[in-house]
Write a structure and sequence with these properties.
This is MGF factor. One of its GO terms (molecular function) is growth factor activity. One of its GO terms (biological process) is positive regulation of myeloid cell differentiation. Its main location: secreted. The protein is mostly helical and 202 residues long. It has one domain (34-80, 92-200): Growth Hormone, Chain: A (Up-down Bundle). It contains eight helices and no strands. α4 packs antiparallel against α7 (126-150), α4 (34-65) packs antiparallel against α8 (171-201) and α6 runs antiparallel to α8. Mean pLDDT is 81; it is low at 1-31.
């Protein structure tokens, strides 16, 4: 689909304007693009749904393993090597549309992979974990397609977080690892949600 010149100019501007400066700026080119707005609102709802499913699994981990408070597990976390997928391109001062969308896609792929460890941990909840994996893949695909429709270049980031799911030395470490995979994924989704909501408000 052809992208209006005004839209390209606006998205170019998004690459460098600090988030704070965007807040009050009138941007009719973006708000007037109904397809882009529809994409944002549909995927805001989708992201909210995924967040709810992650929260449901967090409650299962809390109820099943009595792992509920992150502060109590920080020392164990140091031994696990579970990294948070980066989203610095989606934050205020460093916000970049292409970079942000690319990081969301890369992070969703990473969590799709690491959720395999949660699936092993909670076989009785396989349906919910597999739905979450499918939703993560679909959200990534939606964003990738929208980037192509807008003519945005995909930014490739280092692949250190896209390897196989982590291996754990004990069942307890596996439990704590599952806890932190879900906690990190929830934080990741919160940031992604705020970025999409910010664009929807422009």
């Amino acid at each position: 689909a052809a992208v209006p010149a005004g839209m390209l100019a606006l998205l170019g501007a998004l690459l460098w304007v600090p988030w704070r400066a965007l807040d009050g700026a009138p941007l009719p080119e973006l708000s007037g693009d109904q397809d882009f707005q529809l994409f944002l609102h549909k995927n805001l709802e989708f992201t909210r749904k995924i967040k709810g499913d992650v929260a449901a699994l967090q409650r299962v981990v809390c109820d099943t393993f009595q792992l509920c408070e992150e502060e109590e597990l920080l020392l164990v976390r140091q031994d696990l090597g579970i990294a948070q997928a980066p989203l610095e391109q989606c934050h205020g001062r460093t916000f970049q549309a292409e970079g942000c969308f690319s990081q969301i896609c890369a992070g969703l792929r990473a969590y799709h992979s690491s959720l395999a460890a949660v699936l092993e941990l909670l076989p009785g909840h396989a349906g919910l974990v597999e739905t979450l994996q499918l939703d993560a893949a679909n959200l990534s695909s939606n964003i990738q397609q929208q980037m192509e429709d807008l003519g945005l270049a995909t930014v490739t980031f280092p692949a250190e977080d896209r390897g196989p799911p982590p291996a754990f030395s004990s069942h307890f470490h596996h439990q704590v690892g599952g806890f932190f995979i879900l906690a990190n994924f929830q934080r990741f989704l919160e940031t992604a949600y705020r970025a999409l909501r910010h664009l929807a408000r422009l």
